[in-house]
Amino acid sequence: ELGRSKGLAQAPIGDEHVHGVVDRDAEHHAADHAGRQRERRDAEPEQAEEQDHRRQVGQHHQQAHARRAEHREHQQEHGGAGQADAARELIDLERLVRIRDFPTPRGFGAGADFNAQLAGLLRSDSSLLPSPLSKATRGGAQTGELDPDSAPVLSAFRDTLNVELRHLLAELQRDGFAEHPVMAWAADRWTLRIWGTVLSPGGHQLPHLHPLAWLSGVYYVAVPPGLGDDGALEFGQPPARLRVRNQPERRRVSAEPGRLVVFPSWFWHRTLPFARPGERISVAFDVMPLNPVGY
Length: 295
Description:
Elements: H1 2-6, H2 15-90, H3 93-96, E1 98-101, H4 111-124, E2 129-130, E3 137-142, H5 152-174, E4 190-208, E5 215-222, E6 233-235, E7 251-253, E8 259-264, E9 269-271, E10 280-289
Antiparallel strand pairs: 1-8, 2-3, 3-4, 4-9, 4-10, 5-8, 5-10, 6-7, 6-9
């Protein structure tokens, strides 16, 4: 009615127009389908190449895993012996733990007199502390760092020890250790850190090492008679918190009055408990190089 009132004529929609619209839609759908097919055909080589690449990567990972497994088996069968040999060369307990009798310092009539004065000084030292938590001593007491110039017996110990250390360095060179890591920090001048330990029956020291020093050692001042392996100094056993693949080699050195033991500071060591009555008194020391020159 609106059209008639405006004098407008409505054009009829004929069959030809409808068919034309349908044909154009069909052409568009066919073109889209053909385009998708061409895209798939074009993508097939890329997809095949990507699949081939993934397959190659997977094969590579499998081969690498197999090689690692084979390497681990080889290490277990053969590598352990090689590592043990390398460790033994680095930590040669038999040749690098040096044991010698400590000469009686000048001014003392006999070793017993020297040891008696040194033991008395350690027992009465004001820094002697029972089982200090920051140290390895348990079931005994340990002094702080001692000043060698504070008492004649300590200065005599220091001077005699320095002479023995020079003899020991000459021995290491003669024995073929000039190129060994133990000589990497060798010096012709050094300072000594010295402290004392007094252990009671049952006392011992936990496994430890001395990371800030080059050489370390101990001098036995007084020991209950007949200890044997009880109270011995043992090398090679690390703390229980450290996991090891193979059990390390060990060496025990019995504690005897007048005995001096010197070793590389990186050697794990501990002392074993003892039950006999009496005190196990020792002086420990670290050798701190002042001008490392190596050999």
